[in-house]
Request: fold
Amino acid sequence: MSNKSKREYLEAIRDRYRHATKRGKQRILDEVCQVCGYNRKYAIRLLNASPPSVHTPSQHRAGRVPQYTHPDILRFLKRLWKAGNLPCGKRLNAMIPLWLPFDESIAREARERLQTISAATIDRLLAPVRRLHTKCGLATTKPGSLLKKHIPIKTNQWDEHIPGFLEADTVAHCGSSMAGMFAFTLNAVDIATNWSEQRALWGKGERSTLEALTSIEAALPFRVRGFDCDNGSEFINWTILAHYTKRKRPVAYTRSREYHKNDNAHVEEKNWTHVRQYLGYERFNDPTIVPLLNDLYTNEWRLLMNFFLPSVKLTSKQRVKSRIIKTYDPPKTPLHRVLQSPHVAPQRKRELKSLFHQLNPFLLQQCVDKKIRLILTRVSHSRS
Reply:
C-alpha cells in the first residue's frame, strides 16, 4: 500500500476510532497495524492526531520577485538577438552596452534592468524564440600545383597576441553544383583580434585573388605579419607567393595540411558566422552580383562585424583524463581587441575611435539587411 493510500485510509477511520468503545478501539488498532504495518503506539498517535488542514495555495510564487518582466526588456533582447545574427547569451550581454544607447524607445526602468542583466537570464528569456541551424554545403578546395613544396606547412601556432597573422579561405556561392562560373567570397580573419575582412571574386583566378588580398591588406588597421591558407589553387600559385615573399618586409606565408580543416579553425568558423548565416547557400552565377557584394563588404558589413559584434577567444585548453576543458575570455569586439593591443599605432587607434562614435549599429544592420535582400533578389531573378 502506498503512503498516499495509507493516509486516505487513516482519514477514513479516524472519526470512527474516536467514537468507538475501548474494545472497539482495540479492534481498529489491530486492523490498522495489520493493514499498514505500523507499530501500535505509532498508529495510536496517528489516529489521535487532529485532521490535516486543507492547504490553500499562496497567491504569490515562492522566491524573489521577478525583475525582468517589463515588456521593453524582451522586445529589445529579441531585436538585438536578431540584429546580431542570433548570438549566445554571453555575446549578447556584451552587445547590450554598445547597442542600448541607440534605442531611445526603451523605458528608464527597462534600461536600468538591461544594464545589470546576466547572460544566463538572457538565455532563459530568449529560450522560447530560439531556432536551430544546421551547417551544410559543398567542399570546393581543389589541390594546388607542385608549388606546394615551396610553401611550408604551419607546424606550430603563431603568436596569437600580436595582430597581423591572418588565416584566409574562400567560400563558394555555387548552390548545389560546381559546374560553370559563379561568385566566391574570400574570407580573412586575424587570429589575435578576430578582425575579419571579406571580398567577392568572380571565379578563383590568381589576379582577382591578388586584388582581393591587396584590398583586404589596405583595410586592416595593422600590417600583415603572417598569412596562412589551405591548399586551394587560388592561394597556391606563384602570383600569391611572390606577393608575400618578394617585398621589402616579407610576410610569413604558410599553408595548412591537406584534409585537415581544423588547421584553419579561425577562418572556418567565420565562413559560417560571417558568410553562410547571412548569404546562405544559393548559387551566385551572375557576375553583376560581385560589385554588389563588394559594396556591402567594404562598407556597412565590415563596420558592423568588427565594431559592434563581440566574439570570444579560446585562452586555454587542458585535458583532464577523457575530458577537454576549454577556457574562453570575456566577449569583446574586434575593435576592442585592436584598441587594447600595444602593437597597433596610436594614430590608427584614434582614427578607429573617432569612426566608432559616428556609427549607429541599428542603422548599419538595416543597411546590411537591405543590401542582402537586393543581392538575393538579383540571385532569384538570375535563376528564372
Remarks:
- Strands lie at 165-172, 183-190, 196-202, 226-229, 252-255, 314-320, 323-328.
- Confidence is low (pLDDT under 50) at residues 133-139, 141-146.
- The longest helix spans residues 361-383.
- The CA atoms of residues 200 and 290 lie 6 Å apart.
